[in-house]
Amino acid sequence: MSNPIKKIMVYIDGTEQSVTAAQYAICLASSSGAELIAHYVINTRAAEDLLKARIFLKDEQVEYEHDMEADAERYLNYVNELAMKKGLSIIKKRSKGNVHKEIVDAVNEDEIDLLVIGELSRIRSRRDELYDETERAMRTVPCSVLVVKDEERVWEMYESLT
After folding, report:
1. How many structural domains is the chain composed of?
2. CA–CA separation, 64 vs 91, rounded Å?
3. Fewer C-beta neighbours within 10 Å, C or N terminus of the chain?
4. Which domain holds residue 99?
5. Is 39 within the bounds of a domain?
């Protein structure tokens, strides 16, 4: 039987949890031979909401989006370095827009078999649950989803890769 997982996408959002998810995805891709895509979504919707709420002026929104683009580049490069240290090449991908929609679109477009995400933040209310973009993506993508936990164990797995 051939490997059922040919393409893995790891969602990177700049949190420690997403870096842990990337390390786990690197381990999976390395052992399975699957193609690995690291995807960062620049959340332009958040900036637009801040502008609409008059928390940001237009100039501040533009500056904020430039900062988010720089963050995306920095984190994707970091994940790429993690992969290269283990002899794995990855595809770096970034998009802009609504996080859950961009993730779902990328999963469909790239025919992803497995989406890997970091541990979800603790939900404090039903309202928070409805607005957590990563959780919405997890619930609506057409592929299987792996939620990575246990940072120390993942680090040990990643470090043991040759």
Report:
1. 1
2. 26
3. N
4. 7-15+22-160
5. yes
